[in-house]
Amino acid sequence: DEDLRVLMIRTVAEMLDRREDLAEVRDHDLGITGQADFTVTAKPAQEMKLYCPLEIQAEPQIYETDWDAPYEDDLEVIPASCACGCEDEINAAIEKYSEPEEKHRGLMVYYDANSPVNEKVVSAFPSVEVRNGELTGVLTCRLTEPLTESEMAEFQDWWSGQASDGWGEGYEQQEINTDEFGTIYVSFWNSSDSWQIEAEMTDMTDTAD
């Protein structure tokens, strides 16, 4: 039915038009076979990465002949420079820990819906990556437009809270099995003065085909 086809096209166009990463969606019916039924114009996109130091601890290896072994409740600190080989195992554990509703926007599904930041930051996914010879925590964000200075401060404060008391507090309690260190625990936050967030921006339009 032609009327139903047109209605479906317009409905899809309206749904796309509500997406925050699209600048414009126009529906048009030229009556030409193979002709697109609507045109989508994407907004210029940026990628922002927020880096932070990790605290990595491992359950101690206990041997029957090791009389000086630590108590089972003690954890051994693993330097970030020594844990680079655990990158894939930790990221697999992060993916397993994620909730179904985080599939498209990551942790942004928990952001204040009334904030302009929530409109500009399309998605934010935590992971780890090797940077400058150390395993580092990273929040990879996709933006429709740059954040203002005050919005950046708001967003970094939010991520600091997620790393310490929100998402990160739950994740640091998850056991991660590794080939190199056995069972480890990874925290995206610590209380030392050295903990800080470093932002790095990439213009995705420069890398697009």
Commentary on this structure:
The chain has six helices and ten strands. The relative contact order is 0.19. The protein is elongated. The mean pLDDT is 85. The chain has 209 residues and is an alpha+beta fold. Strand 8 and strand 9 (182-187) form a beta hairpin. The strands form three sheets. It has a four-stranded antiparallel β-sheet with strand order 6-7-3-10. The protein has a four-stranded antiparallel β-sheet with strand order 5-4-9-8. A two-stranded antiparallel ribbon has the order 1-2.
Terminus-to-terminus distance: 38 Å
Helix content: 25-40%
Helix-strand topology string: HEEEEEHHEEHHEEEH
Largest sheet: 4 strands, antiparallel
Q: Helix- and strand-based class?
A: alpha+beta
Give the percentage of residues in beta strands.
25-35%
Number of extended strands: 10
So what's the overall shape?
A: elongated
Rg over C-alpha atoms, rounded to the nearest angstrom: 22 Å
Would you identify the regions where 5 or more consecutive residues have pLDDT less than 50? none
Mean pLDDT over the full residue set: 85
